[in-house]
Amino acid sequence: MLIAKDGNNRQWREDLDNTIDLIGSLAYAMILEGDFSQALEAADEAISVAPDRIFIYGNRAHALMFLGRPDEARAIYLQYRGKTNVVGEKSWETTVLDDFAEMRKAGLSELLMDEIESVFGKEEAAEPGTAQPEQAAQ
Fold first, then answer.
1. Which of 13, 26, 54, 82 has its CA 20 to 30 A from that of 20?
2. Side-chain half-sphere of 42: how many Cα atoms within 13 Å?
3. End-to-end alpha-carbon separation of the chain, Å?
4. Domain count across the chain
5. Angstrom distance (rounded) from CA 36 to CA 50
């Protein structure tokens, strides 16, 4: 890899960062299109290069969920609870819940989504100064 040869090359580092983000976003687009196997492959590829990009684990979990692997997906959803600045300033919980809403608009739904929403909604309600789950859904 070029970065290994010259880790100080700013342009190469920026290009790699942008490419990782694009692959992670591509994985999500594949999920919305119903191409779950390819989405999982894209997410795994991006994670192998940038394991610190938490949002990509969400895409991996989504793909696993739709591929009938709910236990693996659940473990990922629950593993990153409490993480902040996952996508911009959004928390892990907000990022996942927003993804679920968008997936439902695309006609995608699984029982695990309801379970995770329930867990995340209870956590948000327990935090002082946060909206109640029914208010947050509006």
1. 82
2. 24
3. 46
4. 1
5. 21
Q: What share of the chain is helix, strand, coil (3-state, %, to 5)?
A: 70, 0, 30
- pTM attached to this predicted model: 0.81
DSSP calls for 86-120:
SBTTB-HHHHHHHHHHHHHHTT---HHHHHHHHHH
DSSP state of 40: H
Cα 126–chain centre separation: 23
Assign residue 77 the CATH number of its domain.
1.25.40
Task: Kindly report the length of the chain.
Answer: 138
Q: Which residues contact 36 (CB under 8 A, 6 or more apart)?
A: 30, 63, 66, 67
**Angstrom distance (rounded) from CA 42 to CA 121:** 29
Residue matched to tokens 């976003």:
25
5-57: per-residue pLDDT in tens? 666 778 878 888 888 999 999 999 999 999 999 999 999 999 999 999 999 99
Provide the 10 A C-beta neighbour count for residue 57: 22
Q: Which residues constitute the domain of residue 91? A: 2-136
How many CA atoms does the CB half-sphere of 81 hold within 13 Å?
13
* Residue 7: per-residue pLDDT: 62
